[in-house]
Amino acid sequence: MALKRFPVPVNSAVAIALAPTLVKPLLDLVTALLTTLELPPKLREMLILLVSHETRCSYEWAQHLPQAAAAGVGDDELALVTDRHLDSADPAERVMLDAARMYLDGTPWEDATMASLLERFPERQVAEILFVLGAIRMFTLYINALDIELDPSGEELAERFADLAETRS
């Protein structure tokens, strides 16, 4: 069963089992997002926390804080994620977070938005940014709708996914 291949049993993964034909593809997607992207893990985790914050998904936020910390996300980056009025000193982070907020707000993108991303990220990473935003938003909305109980697996999950990413690189 696909759930047995997931690094650590977590309530969100168990909740996916309510839709049995989606278990394998969804868990494969999550595993790929967390282990095989070219996008640096720090930026991936900033995006995941941004989506968690914007969708008010306390479950995903709590689960990813340990993974974010392991990827190098500190207090300054957490402030950037939670406060729209702060700007990163890093131009790539600033452009990524601005574009991500537009995406999550449903604001139509102008050509300049994509051009700014492509000035700072390769095409593949821009695509990965969009997939992280879309996939995590889908999961956070699902988690919120089911009011999934927080589980204590966050730190263990961070370690297991880090190990899995190492074996894939």
TrEMBL record:
In Gene Ontology terms, what is one molecular function of this protein? peroxiredoxin activity
**Segments forming domain Carboxymuconolactone decarboxylase-like:** 26-101
**Pfam family membership, one:** CMD
| Keyword field contains Ligase | no
Q: Which UniProt keywords apply?
A: Oxidoreductase, Peroxidase
User: What name is this protein filed under?
Assistant: Alkylhydroperoxidase AhpD family core domain-containing protein
| Source species of the chain | Nonomuraea solani
